[in-house]
Amino acid sequence: MAEDDADEVPKLPPDVRLESLDQRLDRLQQAEAKRTAKRQPDASYQAGQLILSQLVGCPLGGGIIGWLLDHWFGTKPWLMLVMLFLGFAVGIWNVIRISNKAQSKALGERE
Length: 111
Prior knowledge:
By secondary structure, the chain is mostly helical. Helix content is 77%, strand content 0%. The protein has a domain at 49-103.
């Protein structure tokens, strides 16, 4: 067997089967990436969650704080009721603030 003086590896013709396999693998990887991609929730869904958390959390937090204050000061139902209604008012105020912010943002995007 004679050796080449340049020590070059002879070029082989491209294998059509390997190219086809690479293309199929690329298509399958793209399909898998689409399938497993994390969906981003809508802005309206996120706003709904925020509003719900405000309407539940503020009165609940106010009620718990009022109950603790009633327990410490011995004024059984009164501070809890006052703080519960204050929490409800704060929750409604936060919902109005959130909706105004969303409305101004939506109007700014249209113009």
